[in-house]
Amino acid sequence: MASLDDAAVRDFLTSGTKTGHLGYTASDGRPLVAPVWFVLDGDRLAFNTGATTAKGRAIGRDPRIVLTVDLQEPPYAFVQVQGCAVVSEDLDEVKRIATLCGARYMGADRAQEFGDRNGVPGELVIWIETDKVIASLDATA
């Protein structure tokens, strides 16, 4: 089984601006998937969402989530992280993760702007406490 401690997995997750695909459960039991910007924060993946969004409400009901990140060009690869959400409304943490996501996806020159915009009341930071990691880093091999 793969691990977030694996250097190749960490490199895959942190290189470039791959979007994560977050799987969660709707209130009626349907599986749903939504794109998210994420960062690796220590040994956990982290992202932001609004408390009243479908994602935020669903995670509040059922913290079991999955995040899949893929590479849509050769060598075609993916990492899937299964686990439970740890949710915080602490504005310092919300803004810190929003700023890190801003730096990753929008560039260092806009990181603070993104952090300021999304590090506000009503926003959440969510970390994934990992239960299982599945990785295929070269589907062409």
UniProtKB/TrEMBL annotation:
Work out whether the entry's keyword set contains Oxidoreductase.
Answer: yes
Q: Name one GO molecular function term.
A: coenzyme F420 binding
* Pyridoxamine 5'-phosphate oxidase N-terminal domain mapped to chain residues: 9-133
**Gene3D superfamilies assigned to the protein according to its UniProt record, in alphabetical order:** Electron Transport, Fmn-binding Protein, Chain A (2.30.110.10)
Keyword check for Oxidoreductase: yes
Q: Name one GO cellular component term.
A: cytosol
Instruction: Read off the Pfam families from this record.
Output: PNPOx_N
Q: What protein am I looking at?
A: Pyridoxamine 5'-phosphate oxidase N-terminal domain-containing protein
Q: Which organism is it from?
A: Gordonia soli NBRC 108243
